[in-house]
């Protein structure tokens, strides 16, 4: 289902012809914390967008953050682009991203808000593609998470995960009308967000993107996935960092949707294959091991086709590298869920949180060391 949907949904040609009505203005919120080797080039792509009316609002928590100097150099390099830097944030809850963006959100002057994480690299036609997906009843257009090409096993692992397991869930959920909103690159109508109480209303959640979409859709609006995936381009990739991130996301899903614990293993290749092989042996007398191996082979080939569809061509590594990355990703998936279950405490940058059932977060005080 996801593979067929991806062929229809992703990588459509963006219409660059002049519109009948002027495109609405967009305020881009860019929350920043620290720098990495790719940050400058990532941010620079927001100054070269092929869109007639937008502003870029950078947000940092601390005036001593090294991102301040980097942003100021971009403001000097592109004086013709409307851009501002907001420093200090505003405390409206426990979510540091919301607190960081709140002053910029209040100052935003356009009817459309694009919330875009620091590590996202934009093609020049991405914003145009997202706006063209809006309809009168559509309030949110979001990009499916994917990654830029990168060297090393961590880059292979990241691309395999986001191009197979994540893409399956994301596209399948969108096709079935299930809330799959990930807010790393999300365009939202400001009027719809104000109906829910504004950006500050989601400061009590760490997964503000999920609850934002839930609140907006509950008021009769619809969501759509853009045809161009969000290109994550972190300058510091590692296997451990990606697994820590996936574990944090799993903890959030468990707290928000507890049925995740029961249903999510059934979406993974190895647990589902083992269960199906046992069931086929019990019901039909089939040999479990050959059944399991055929299941894994078909799943592997389907994931290769899925990755090619999301990549819009051949991935930047060999089939052997894909095999290694795929085996690692599939073997780690049940372990990630188990770790999330055994330790529900969430670490995000320098802060720690604990979640109530339903998703509300409480920041934990740092433990004193003697």
TrEMBL record:
Pathway named in the protein's UniProt entry: Lipid metabolism
Protein localization: Golgi apparatus membrane
The enzyme's E.C. designation: 2.4.1.80
UniProt KW Acyltransferase keyword: no
Pfam families attached to this UniProt entry: Glyco_transf_21 (PF13506)
Main location: Golgi
InterPro entries, per the entry: Ceramide_glucosylTrfase (IPR025993)
Family that this chain belongs to: Belongs to the glycosyltransferase 2 family.
Protein name: ceramide glucosyltransferase
Taxonomic path: Eukaryota, Metazoa, Ecdysozoa, Arthropoda, Hexapoda
């Amino acid at each position: 289902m996801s593979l067929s949907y991806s062929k229809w949904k992703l990588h459509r040609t963006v219409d660059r012809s002049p519109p009948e009505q002027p495109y609405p203005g967009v305020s881009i919120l860019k929350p920043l914390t620290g720098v990495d080797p790719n940050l400058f080039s990532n941010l620079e792509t927001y100054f070269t967008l092929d869109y007639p009316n937008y502003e870029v609002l950078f947000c940092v928590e601390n005036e001593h953050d090294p991102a301040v100097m980097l942003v100021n150099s971009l403001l000097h390099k592109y004086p013709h682009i409307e851009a501002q830097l907001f420093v200090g944030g505003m405390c409206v809850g426990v979510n540091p991203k919301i607190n960081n963006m709140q002053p910029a959100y209040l100052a935003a002057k356009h009817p459309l808000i694009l919330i875009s994480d620091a590590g996202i690299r934009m093609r020049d036609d991405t914003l145009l593609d997202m706006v063209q997906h809006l309809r009168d009843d559509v309030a949110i257009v979001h990009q499916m998470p994917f990654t830029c090409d990168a060297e090393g096993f961590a880059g292979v692992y990241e691309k395999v995960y986001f191009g197979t397991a994540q893409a399956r869930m994301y596209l399948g959920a969108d096709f079935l009308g299930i809330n799959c909103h990930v807010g790393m690159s999300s365009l939202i109508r400001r009027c719809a967000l104000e109906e829910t109480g504004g950006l500050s209303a989601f400061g009590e959640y760490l997964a503000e993107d999920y609850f934002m979409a839930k609140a907006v859709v509950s008021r009769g609006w619809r969501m759509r996935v853009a045809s161009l995936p969000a290109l994550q381009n972190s300058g510091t990739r590692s296997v451990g960092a990606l697994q820590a991130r996936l574990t944090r996301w799993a903890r959030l899903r468990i707290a928000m949707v507890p049925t995740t614990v029961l249903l999510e293993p059934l979406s993974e290749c190895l647990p589902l294959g083992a269960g199906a092989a046992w069931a086929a042996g019990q019901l039909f007398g089939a040999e479990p091991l050959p059944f399991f191996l055929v299941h894994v082979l078909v799943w592997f080939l389907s994931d290769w086709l899925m990755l090619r569809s999301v990549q819009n061509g051949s991935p930047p590594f060999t089939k052997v590298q894909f095999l290694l990355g795929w085996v690692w990703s599939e073997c780690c998936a049940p372990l990630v869920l188990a770790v999330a279950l055994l330790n529900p405490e969430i670490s995000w940058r320098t802060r720690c949180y604990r979640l109530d059932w339903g998703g509300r977060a409480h920041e934990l005080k740092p433990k004193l060391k003697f």
